[in-house]
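Exam revision sheet. Question 4 asks you to relate a sequence to its structure. Input first:
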Amino acid sequence: MGCRSLFEIKGVFPKGKQGYGYFNLNMEKAPNIALYGHLKLEKIKHIALVHKPVRGKESYAIAFITTDKEVLFKVYLGRDEHQQLFPQQVIKFNQLKNKEILC
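Answer key, structure tokens:
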């Protein structure tokens, strides 16, 4: 089943912490971060780091896959005003994929 909707938020991805069976994002509601909420951890079976072309452009995403093997959502690396990937994000993505860093 493919992704049915797409939302774009430009900005910093919030920090979070576990509590009550959820991963809680931005619970202090930092003023410079638009995203906050709760991710039900028991619904997530895998987190995949995906690097593939999308519409002819190099693309990087972190995909959250459910226990039903469906993609719940993806977080894509950002692009600048010229549609170029932010190099520092690509470096961090590859470090995470190669397990050089933990978050």
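Marking note for examiners. Residues 16-97 form a domain with the Heme iron utilization protein-like fold fold (CATH 3.40.1570.10).
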